[in-house]
Amino acid sequence: MPVAHVTFGSADLERGARFYDAVMAEFGGSRMMESDRAVGWSFPEGGTSIGICTPFDGAPANVGNGSMFALMASGEDQVRRVHGAALANGGSCEGEPGLRENGFYAAYFRDPDGNKLNAFCIPAAG
Protein backbone atom coordinates (compact mmCIF):
# COMPACT_ATOMS: atom_id res chain seq x y z
CA MET A 1 0.00 0.00 0.00
CA PRO A 2 1.69 3.24 -1.11
CA VAL A 3 1.66 6.14 1.34
CA ALA A 4 0.51 9.39 -0.30
CA HIS A 5 1.24 11.85 2.49
CA VAL A 6 1.83 12.27 6.20
CA THR A 7 0.37 15.21 8.12
CA PHE A 8 1.23 16.48 11.60
CA GLY A 9 -0.86 18.86 13.67
CA SER A 10 0.74 22.20 14.46
CA ALA A 11 -0.09 24.90 16.99
CA ASP A 12 1.96 27.48 15.04
CA LEU A 13 2.06 27.07 11.24
CA GLU A 14 4.64 29.82 10.71
CA ARG A 15 7.08 28.26 13.18
CA GLY A 16 6.42 24.77 11.87
CA ALA A 17 6.83 25.88 8.26
CA ARG A 18 10.29 27.35 9.01
CA PHE A 19 11.32 24.01 10.52
CA TYR A 20 9.99 21.90 7.62
CA ASP A 21 11.32 24.33 4.98
CA ALA A 22 14.83 23.68 6.32
CA VAL A 23 14.48 19.93 6.88
CA MET A 24 12.72 19.19 3.58
CA ALA A 25 15.24 21.33 1.65
CA GLU A 26 17.90 18.81 2.71
CA PHE A 27 15.98 16.23 0.64
CA GLY A 28 15.31 18.57 -2.29
CA GLY A 29 11.72 19.15 -1.15
CA SER A 30 9.85 22.41 -1.38
CA ARG A 31 6.45 23.81 -0.50
CA MET A 32 3.77 22.60 -2.88
CA MET A 33 0.77 24.08 -1.11
CA GLU A 34 0.00 26.64 1.52
CA SER A 35 -3.22 27.95 3.05
CA ASP A 36 -4.23 29.65 6.27
CA ARG A 37 -4.66 26.17 7.87
CA ALA A 38 -2.02 23.97 6.23
CA VAL A 39 1.38 23.85 4.53
CA GLY A 40 2.67 20.92 2.45
CA TRP A 41 6.00 19.86 0.91
CA SER A 42 6.71 17.52 -1.98
CA PHE A 43 9.75 16.22 -3.79
CA PRO A 44 10.83 16.43 -7.45
CA GLU A 45 10.93 12.63 -7.79
CA GLY A 46 7.45 12.25 -6.27
CA GLY A 47 6.73 9.84 -3.45
CA THR A 48 5.26 10.57 -0.06
CA SER A 49 4.67 14.23 0.75
CA ILE A 50 4.53 15.77 4.21
CA GLY A 51 2.35 18.49 5.65
CA ILE A 52 1.40 20.34 8.79
CA CYS A 53 -2.01 21.73 9.65
CA THR A 54 -4.04 23.19 12.43
CA PRO A 55 -6.34 20.40 13.63
CA PHE A 56 -9.65 20.47 11.77
CA ASP A 57 -11.64 19.69 14.92
CA GLY A 58 -10.39 22.89 16.56
CA ALA A 59 -8.81 21.01 19.47
CA PRO A 60 -5.15 21.65 20.33
CA ALA A 61 -2.52 19.80 18.27
CA ASN A 62 -0.90 16.97 20.21
CA VAL A 63 1.77 14.32 19.72
CA GLY A 64 1.04 10.64 19.16
CA ASN A 65 2.95 8.63 21.76
CA GLY A 66 4.98 6.02 19.88
CA SER A 67 4.46 7.72 16.50
CA MET A 68 7.44 8.61 14.32
CA PHE A 69 8.00 9.54 10.68
CA ALA A 70 11.26 8.21 9.17
CA LEU A 71 13.05 10.00 6.33
CA MET A 72 15.39 7.91 4.14
CA ALA A 73 18.68 9.75 3.64
CA SER A 74 21.21 9.18 0.87
CA GLY A 75 24.06 8.72 3.33
CA GLU A 76 25.53 9.57 6.71
CA ASP A 77 26.40 13.13 5.70
CA GLN A 78 22.79 13.84 4.79
CA VAL A 79 21.63 12.36 8.12
CA ARG A 80 23.94 14.80 9.91
CA ARG A 81 22.79 17.76 7.78
CA VAL A 82 19.10 16.99 8.33
CA HIS A 83 19.62 16.67 12.08
CA GLY A 84 21.53 19.97 12.12
CA ALA A 85 18.82 21.72 10.08
CA ALA A 86 16.17 20.39 12.47
CA LEU A 87 17.95 21.67 15.57
CA ALA A 88 18.81 25.03 13.98
CA ASN A 89 15.14 25.62 13.14
CA GLY A 90 13.39 24.99 16.44
CA GLY A 91 13.58 21.21 16.65
CA SER A 92 14.92 19.24 19.61
CA CYS A 93 17.33 16.31 19.69
CA GLU A 94 16.02 12.83 20.44
CA GLY A 95 19.25 11.04 19.47
CA GLU A 96 22.48 12.33 17.95
CA PRO A 97 23.56 11.03 14.51
CA GLY A 98 25.29 7.68 14.83
CA LEU A 99 25.31 3.97 14.08
CA ARG A 100 22.46 2.06 15.72
CA GLU A 101 22.34 -1.56 16.89
CA ASN A 102 20.17 -2.53 13.93
CA GLY A 103 22.90 -1.46 11.48
CA PHE A 104 21.25 1.82 10.50
CA TYR A 105 22.95 5.19 10.73
CA ALA A 106 20.30 7.47 12.19
CA ALA A 107 19.49 10.70 14.00
CA TYR A 108 16.26 11.38 15.89
CA PHE A 109 14.59 14.74 16.46
CA ARG A 110 11.27 16.43 17.18
CA ASP A 111 9.67 19.28 15.30
CA PRO A 112 8.67 22.46 17.19
CA ASP A 113 5.28 20.89 18.04
CA GLY A 114 6.90 17.74 19.48
CA ASN A 115 6.27 15.33 16.59
CA LYS A 116 9.06 12.75 16.35
CA LEU A 117 11.02 12.16 13.13
CA ASN A 118 14.25 10.50 12.20
CA ALA A 119 16.62 10.57 9.27
CA PHE A 120 18.44 7.35 8.52
CA CYS A 121 20.48 5.45 5.96
CA ILE A 122 21.93 2.02 5.57
CA PRO A 123 25.72 2.52 5.64
CA ALA A 124 27.81 1.06 2.84
CA ALA A 125 29.48 -2.19 3.83
CA GLY A 126 33.00 -1.43 4.90
Describe the structure.
There is one protein chain. Helix 1 runs antiparallel to helix 2. The protein has one domain (5-54, 69-121): 2,3-Dihydroxybiphenyl 1,2-Dioxygenase, domain 1, CATH 3.10.180. The longest helix has 13 residues, at 13-25. It has two helices and eight strands; from the N terminus they run βαββββαβββ. A hairpin with a 6-residue loop joins strand 3 and strand 4 (49-53). The chain has a four-stranded mixed beta sheet, with helices on one face. A four-stranded mixed beta sheet has the order 5-8-7-6, with helices on one face. The radius of gyration is 14 Å and the shape is globular. The mean pLDDT is 93. It has 126 residues and is of the alpha/beta class. The protein has helices at 13-25, 76-88, and strands spanning 5-9, 30-34, 38-42, 49-53, 69-72, 92-99, 105-110, 116-121. This is VOC family protein. Residues 2-122 form the VOC domain.
